[in-house]
Write a structure and sequence with these properties.
The chain has 397 residues and is α+β, with helices and mostly antiparallel strands. Helix content is 43%, strand content 22%. It has twelve helices and 13 strands. Strands 1, 2, 3, 4, 5, 6, 7, 8 and 13 form a nine-stranded mixed β-sheet that branches. It has a four-stranded antiparallel β-sheet with strand order 10-11-9-12. Helix 3 packs across helix 5 (179-197) and helix 4 crosses helix 5.
Amino acid sequence: MPANDFFVSAPGKAILHGEHAVVHGKVALAVSLNLRTYLRLETTTTGKVCINLPNIDTFLCWNLTELKQLLPYSCAKGEEMKRLDPELVQRLREFVGVTNGNLDTCNMATLSFLYLYLSLFGSSELPSLTLSVWSELPTGAGLGSSAAYSVCLAAALLSARGAIPTPLKEWDHTGRWCQEDLELINSWAFQGEMIIHGNPSGVDNAVGTWGGMLRFLAGKIIPLSRVPLLRILLTNTKVPRSTKVLVARVKDKINKFPSIMTPVLDSVDAVSCTCEKVLSEMTSEPITGEHYNILEELIDINQHHLNVMGVGHPALDTLCRVTLTRGLHSKLTGAGGGGCGITLLRPETDSVVVQSTVQDLRDCGFDCWETSIGGPGVQQHAPLSVKEEVLEILNRY
């Protein structure tokens, strides 16, 4: 790596349409959020590897000598290693002191980092590094925070190893990798996600890698080449939910009422496909109010579908009701049962309306941000292009 400091970021994700239907072979549309995870990698001469996680007030260091003891149990071949090494994972779990299967945020972040670090550098000399990672994304809210973290780790460590080039040119503020390098970043980020989640779909890390919008169908992930940047409100109801329980609930409904639920899933699929068509039109012709009218109608239809599927929640109903009084349209994003929702903002929506809506939602006890969807995936940054407040946090250690 040519510079001592390396800055990289990756976006979070939202599901625009197709929650739960994707499990049953239907189309889902996942979009990147302009809320990002930022990573700073500093090469050092301390003989240690350190990771700083300000979001969870954690700073950890390991001597290279103790990490090297784990290497005989790994057959790592650097960037050529494509499958998760269960033996190394188990050794790391014992090393970190996690053997009961219950991982908190700190343990998950630690395991994912150490696994990628040892796998990528295990066949060569282990370098002294300090990584600092800070995220604008809340954890555990279904917004892909762990995937954004894994993508940042993969991009930074692959670059540090020399497996992919540094894309940032001297005169650039940000740089993007080529398609082949993005595929390698994504494959390693997916391994990080497997350590954290066990059996992830791969959608979250793909969104973090490519950004924009992705079409997910029958296990195949297709990045859409061009999508419009859309303003949204992102609201976290702060109601905890279990994706596993909610997926099981939908499956039970389908088994109990197949003649009712199958057409609902077909309709959700049609909503996703119609939305994809409209967004494609918005990149190839002048955007009109009618485009936004259709997107708003699709949001309302999909939200009703999700309630029929049994994954709504009174907090999400409150979100939809509060925003509708301001003429705005909302739906849940992710597994449902609480969690987060998105509200579409039209270009002409007055800032006073936006600010009033945000305050209304905060008065309900929710967290709310104005942001956008459809932004870029993983990027390398020049230090001057990193937000000042983020840079201050990353430079704290």
